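User: I'm new to structure prediction. If I give you an amino acid sequence, what do you actually give back? Let's try with this one:
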Amino acid sequence: MLLALNKPFNVLCQFSPEGGKRTLAEFVRQKDVYPAGRLDYDSEGLLLLTDDGRLAHQLTDPRHKQPKTYLVQVDGAVTDEAIAQLRAGVTLNDGPTLPAGAEHADEPAWLWMREPPVRFRKSIPTSWISVTLREGRNRQVRRMTAAVGFPTLRLIRVSVGGYALDGLAPGETRTLLK
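Assistant: Good question. You get back a string of structure tokens that encode the predicted 3D arrangement of the chain. For your 178 residues, that looks like this:
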């Protein structure tokens, strides 16, 4: 079985309670499925859950290099130079990243309101980029955008491998494979 969940903002990527924070148990009623990979507490979007260990391994093991695509709202008007740096790979404190797919993006028309909303500052614009990775280090997209001078304000995963968010509202699930 494979489920897609649009994980809401500020939800832990686990079923067991911890520190009074919201968990996947609030949204996933299917028994005996587990996250195939992780999505940070303060990130949103596509999370795949499965009861098939082999499938989970195929989706998450770095050797399989499954692409993961994110829409990222950043602080400031992102430059072509920053996009080029992301495409070339960025050196982080744990070493260089692989080159990423990166491009300017528009705020999507389908975007839902986030609670709480992203901070607004009159004097500093925000912009959107699309970033595709084939590796998955801890908080990698956030660290990469910060390294090129544009800290992440909002991070939404829209696809993993051949699976996409495709109109799921926050907290909704869809069965992809039975």
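You can read the tokens as a compact description of the fold. Here is one thing that stands out. The chain has a mean pLDDT of 95.
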